[in-house]
Amino acid sequence: MEFTEEHEQFRKSLRRLVDEEINPHVDAWEDAGIFPAHELFPKLGEIGALGLEYDPAYGGGGADHSFTYVLAQELGRVNCAGVAMAIAVETSMATPALARYGSHELKSTYLEPTLRGEMVCSIAVSEPDAGSDVAGIRTRAVRDGDDWVINGRKMWITNGTQADWLCLLARTDPDAQPGDYHGMSLIVVPTSTPGFSVGRKIEKMGNRSSDTAEIVLDNVRVPVTNTIGEPDRGFQQQMAQFQDERLVGAYIAVAGARKALDRTKEYLQQRVAFGKPLLANQHLQYRLAELYADVDTLDGFLQYAADRFIAGHDVTREATVAKLKVGRLVREVADTCVQFHGGMGYAEEMWVARYFRDARLVSIGGGADEVMLRVITMLEGMGKK
Ligand SMILES: Cc1cc2nc3c(=O)[nH]c(=O)nc-3n(C[C@H](O)[C@H](O)[C@H](O)COP(=O)(O)OP(=O)(O)OC[C@H]3O[C@@H](n4cnc5c(N)ncnc54)[C@H](O)[C@@H]3O)c2cc1C
């Protein structure tokens, strides 16, 4: 991937924003278990970071995916994963389907203010009884005249306590049952609609600054025109939207891993034991070198995947492989960083403990490692659907 002066200018403005508007507040936001999305997102909107690849007619940047890669690299420098993930939900997880398939009216009403950072959104797919198995969802939207009446529960919803709207996956074909891969739709649900409520905010071991909610939908009535694209195509649209999510999540995590290795190297340079800096120890040097090599290798694969995405190829395989291998690598990096910091790696006062907790999510959120293996198994013609 080649970066131009334009990429570097964009990177500079992002870096300034991360250094000045995000990192100084991370500790307080982690303690609070939430960050102020409605204050932060307009600042990202102002520098055009929220709608890089979207149509300029709706306030997007009309840029290609290489700018999203730069955005993700800089989000990997945020001193916690929670805020980076919440931003990625806004840019790459809850909005791609709306931008791709949404009507002009839906895009004007929801996408445009979201790209300015005035509206916060969530992607609402997972449920208490259906996470890995998306086709198992039970939330139903039943047609009543020109409206959908929606009932169900959604689980693990990032930005869920402060979202203005959800990109919600619901079963819309009355004949389709949990387990069927058809008969679902993606629907824009404004959270101000009567019947919408936050059941609870979930306390988590990591990504603590990101609010994660269980959502209750009790006879929530929205117009059928809030359906994104064609009704009953939601499962397929969401599978495509997952490719954006998995790629961007992988870009952020690899950038975060590189930063964690850099910080560990610096620590080992300063920390003296047995009369010399710990970094003089060849065992530690080689272990870090090995992990840098793994990060380089995966980063190269991610850039290859990004280039294929830009060229318009289906990147299901690349996004799946990236998600799987990055999830595994960051766990290894995080564990090594803790180990090489000794007791300080175990202390909450250092960045390492948070990184260790945050990194664990990569192998679970957006599809667990085993689900990625299942996709690769199917792509290789093994196993059954
Ligand atoms: C912090 C956080 C934020 C999240 N944000 C969102 C969000 O914004 N929107 C949203 O919709 N969802 C979100 N999720 C949900 C996330 O995508 C799911 O947790 C994930 O897909 C796993 O689903 P599950 O938790 O129901 O696990 P389950 O489906 O219960 O699976 C449990 C475990 O079983 C194993 N497993 C599952 N299937 C198989 C299989 N076929 N073969 C072998 N092993 C298998 C895996 O190890 C898996 O981790 C979030 C989750 C977390 C923790």
Structure description:
The protein is α+β, with helices and mostly antiparallel strands. It folds into three domains: 5-115, Acyl-CoA dehydrogenase/oxidase, N-terminal domain (Butyryl-Coa Dehydrogenase, subunit A, domain 1), CATH 1.10.540; 121-232, Butyryl-CoA Dehydrogenase, subunit A, domain 2; 236-379, Up-down Bundle (Butyryl-CoA Dehydrogenase, subunit A, domain 3), CATH 1.20.140.10. Helices cover 49% and strands 15% of the residues. It has twelve helices and nine strands. It has helices at 5-22, 26-32, 37-46, 65-75, 81-93, 96-101, 104-115, 234-270, 282-310, 316-341, 351-359, 369-379; strands at 121-124, 140-144, 147-158, 165-171, 184-190, 196-201, 212-223, 272-273, 276-277. The strands form three sheets. Strands 2-3-7-6 form a four-stranded antiparallel beta sheet, covered by helices on one side. β2 (140-144) and β3 form a beta hairpin. α4 packs across α8 (234-270), α8 runs antiparallel to α9 (282-310) and α9 (282-310) packs antiparallel against α10. The protein is globular, with a radius of gyration of 21 Å. The two termini are 35 Å apart. The relative contact order is 0.11. The chain binds flavin-adenine dinucleotide.
